[in-house]
Each structure stands twice: as structure tokens, then as C-alpha cells.
Amino acid sequence: LLENSDHVHTEGDDGHDHGHFDPHYWMDPANLVQVVANLQSGLAQADPDHRDLYQENARSAAAQLERWDADLSDMVQAARADGVEIAGLVTFHDGFRYFAQALDLPLLASIEEEEGSEASAKEINEITGLVKEYDLPVIFTEVNGSDATAQAISRETGCAVAQLTMLMDGPEEGGLENYYDGMLDNVTAILNSFAGREVLTEP
User: Is 88 in contact with 134 (CB distance < 8 Å)?
Assistant: First the structure.
């Protein structure tokens, strides 16, 4: 697990304390291979009669996750080889560190906007400064979050605003079918936004 970044909420501030470690480990497909192994072990202990089935399914799931991990990394590397420069990510929430690390994407800052609240002028100025310094064409909000601050920064700098998902919800009608869909949505949004054109299109 990654240690939490310097910007840490405390219970006294807003009741949203992540503790010492960053809990958003599922945003790295490689970490889910370990999750699958842990689930397989626990299920086999609870239901030893089906131990072999759990083991077989775990091997299949782990192999699928490893393929997805490699595919996503290949997409990013291919876009870079095609001249797409990803100067840095500014995200809505501080939950994309595992994702950025897994795909070797520079993560500059998070807006850290809470629902129903507005970012301070100082926070907006800091993010605005980063957008200008790195000449960012886009900043990212979260599917389930407010975009008020991002839109204010967009008006100030002219950058676009795109959405990423933290995969907080399960499959829903009209929504994501699986984990890979969400990760692919994120990679597609990032690469196309920085390229200024469609270098990846959703299947």
C-alpha cells in the first residue's frame, strides 16, 4: 500500500479520514491479482469442498487481470510513441495515485472538492497556476463528484474538463460492465484529451 499523500483529511475537519495508507488500491490492476488470491484463499478455507474450483477460477481471473494491465500499459506507451505528451494529471480526488503509478502517468495535484462545498480562492489559484505552468489541455473531475471548481479553473485557463471514474459502483444498467471498462474509460479520456484527437476509441 502507498502511504497517504501530505494532504490528509482528519476526522475533525470533515469526517473523511483515509488513515496512514491510501486505500484506493483497486485502481492498479496488479493489486487486484493479490485481491483475487486473498479471496481464493478465504473461500477455500470457508468451503474446502470446492477448493479446486476456487483455485481454477482464481487462476483465470488473475490471468485476465494481468492481460488487462498489460493492454492498458501498451495503450499509453503506444500513444507516447505516437507523440502524445502527458504533462501531468490534475484530478478531482486524491484516489488516483495507484492508477497513475501503474501506468507511469505524472500526477500533479487533486482538487479535493467535497460535495456541497466550494474550494477556496487559494486552492483555485494553486491549481490554475499548475495548469498554466504545465500548459495542461485538460483537468479531470470524477463521475460522482462536483465539477464546480474544475469549471472555474477551465474558465480561467481555457483548459477542457473531462471525467474519470474511480470504479466505486458495480455493474448497472447502461453503465460499466466490468472493471476493465472503467479503466479503459479512464485511459481513453486521458489519451484523447492530451492528444486533442481520438487516439483511442471505445470498442
Answer: yes
Report phi then psi at 195, rounded to 5: -80, -25
Residue 139's H or E segment, with its range, is strand 138-142
Which residues have C-beta within 8 Å of that of residue 190, sequence separation ≥ 6?
A: 86, 89, 105, 140, 162, 164
**Whole-number Å distance between alpha carbons of 34 and 121:** 42
Q: For the segment 86-118, what is each residue's pLDDT rounded down to a tens digit?
A: 999 999 888 899 999 999 999 999 887 554 456
Instruction: Give me the amino acid identity at 59.
Output: R
The distance between the two most distant Cα atoms of the chain, rounded to a whole number of Å, is 62
CA nearest neighbour of 113 among 7, 185, 3, 5: 7
| Cα distances (Å, whole numbers) of residue 79 to 16, 50, 56, 75, 164 | 36, 44, 35, 6, 18
| Tens-digit pLDDT profile for residues 11-59 | 444 444 556 899 999 999 999 999 999 999 999 999 999 999 999 999 9
